[in-house]
Recover the amino acids of this structure.
């Protein structure tokens, strides 16, 4: 289904996907900013339970796209599956807006979000690839801009939903603010869907083969039926910690087994690339353990031990809600992305392109610096409350690490893995990322605060001890990444020599 004006259609088609992705991320990160606080402050969860429930949900949310991409490619069509996922996500956030304190209802709502994300996430990204298919000169820049959609949506929602929660709770009481904030997340998806309906003609020529045929009601009902079962299965996993742990460990074993089997059965010329992908995937798993602290231990640290006052040269500017500190992550992404792009381009022009393995090592060094900054918080504290600038600079270093590691994750799979197994391996990569989300929750629990301790002077050393350990863990990851650099250079050279490939793109797909 070709379009008569490809140059115009690419721009308009991309804009349509960009906008619905932006609103979807608005909903997701608006929910993420509050979910741990909601469980601790509204539902009375201890820290350990809140961290593990959210981390298990995050793991399921990352695992689900491994199946959703296949549904889009083979069963319903990429466009239809993306839209179905967006609609289900709107329902999931709307369920969280229901003013109830039922824990089972929360697990059910999170299960709906797992299914919606699984259907939406891989297919939105696949549409971008299909829009620029065969045009390698544009696809890298398109994904860089697409990555920005995530940060636009997440920045606004992480600033907005905590404010809405506080405003409604203050003026209307009854703790309705939590549910009003979740309702805004659902509204974001509704806006995204409405925007798509207005612009849907721009994607009429883009999609997978099932998109070009009428909807097969039997297949649609089958997908919905499996989706309902998955919702209840996800809710069961979230309600049972031991089941969640077993699920995560089995998923980790499956991913490792997939890599080993593919390396063992692939052609000799493909093995160097697959081994390189395995090494970098393992490094990415460790990165996401650090990354998960943003919504768990760091989020709770901001609640209990960070002064909300934002001062510059002694002048008070404004107060941050504790949950709003997470917005520093996308704000720093905005600031650092163009700087990194300039550095990469300058290095490329000078014939000194920075390898992806080197970027991973630098990324871990930045992550280590970020956690060391957090660990120094007590030195800037008054009565157990540290300066908000600790969070600003800590998030700055962590976000630099994210761009160097997470921003290149899927691009790494696309480059090193043979095309015939690319989709399968991207699914495995998502599963590996999900595993590390849960492991991150386990790590966060080393700083869980007993419910009878409320004094910031007592909680501060508990958090800074964990952050210091994570800083040294980041140093260890940096050393390991540097140690394997000679191996990675050898594997990369063998892979590129066989495939005669161009260097990796600078900033890849978002997570």
């Amino acid at each position: 289904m070709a379009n008569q004006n490809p140059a115009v259609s690419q721009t308009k088609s991309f804009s349509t996907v960009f906008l619905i992705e932006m609103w979807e991320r608005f909903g997701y990160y608006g929910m993420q900013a509050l979910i741990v606080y909601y469980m601790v402050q509204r539902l009375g969860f201890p820290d350990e339970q809140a961290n593990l429930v959210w981390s298990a949900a995050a793991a399921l949310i990352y695992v689900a796209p491994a199946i959703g991409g296949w549904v889009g490619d083979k069963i319903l069509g990429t466009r239809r599956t993306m839209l179905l996922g967006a609609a289900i996500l709107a329902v999931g956030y709307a369920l969280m807006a229901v003013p109830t304190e039922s824990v089972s209802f929360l697990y059910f709502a999170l299960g709906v979000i797992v299914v919606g994300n699984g259907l939406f996430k891989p297919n939105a990204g696949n549409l971008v690839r299909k829009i620029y298919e065969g045009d390698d000169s544009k696809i890298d820049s398109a994904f860089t801009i697409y990555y920005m959609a995530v940060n636009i949506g997440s920045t606004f929602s992480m600033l907005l939903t905590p404010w809405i929660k506080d405003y409604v709770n203050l003026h209307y009481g009854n703790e309705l603010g939590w549910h009003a904030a979740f309702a805004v997340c659902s509204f974001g998806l509704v806006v995204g869907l409405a925007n798509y309906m207005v612009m849907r003609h721009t994607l009429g020529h883009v999609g997978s083969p099932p998109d070009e045929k009428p909807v097969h009601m039997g297949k649609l009902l089958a997908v919905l039926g499996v989706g309902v079962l998955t919702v209840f299965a996800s809710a069961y996993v979230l309600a049972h910690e031991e089941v969640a742990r077993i699920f995560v460990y089995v998923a980790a074993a499956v991913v490792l087994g997939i890599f080993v089997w593919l390396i063992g059965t692939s052609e000799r010329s493909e093995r160097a690339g697959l081994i390189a992908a395995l090494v970098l995937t393992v490094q990415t798993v460790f990165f996401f353990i650090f990354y998960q602290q943003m919504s768990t231990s760091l989020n709770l640290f901001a609640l209990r031990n960070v002064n909300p006052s934002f001062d510059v040269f002694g002048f008070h500017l404004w107060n941050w809600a504790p949950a709003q500190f997470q917005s520093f992550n996308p704000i720093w992404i905005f600031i650092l992305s163009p700087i990194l792009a300039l550095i990469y381009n300058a290095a490329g022009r000078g014939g000194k392109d920075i390898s992806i393995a080197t970027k991973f090592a630098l990324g871990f060094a930045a992550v280590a610096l970020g956690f060391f900054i957090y660990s120094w918080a007590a030195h800037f504290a008054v009565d157990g409350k540290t300066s908000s600038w600790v969070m600003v600079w800590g998030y700055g270093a962590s976000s630099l690490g994210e761009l160097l590691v997470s921003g290149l994750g899927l691009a790494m799979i696309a480059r090193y893995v043979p095309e015939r197994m690319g989709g399968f391996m991207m699914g495995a990569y998502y599963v590996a990322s999900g595993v590390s989300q849960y492991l991150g929750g386990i790590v966060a629990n080393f700083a869980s605060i007993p419910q009878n301790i409320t004094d910031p002077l007592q909680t501060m050393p508990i958090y800074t001890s964990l952050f210091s350990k994570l800083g040294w863990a980041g140093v260890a990851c940096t050393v390991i990444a540097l140690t394997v650099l000679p191996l990675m250079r050898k594997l990369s050279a063998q892979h590129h020599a066989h495939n005669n490939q161009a260097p990796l793109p600078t900033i890849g797909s978002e997570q």
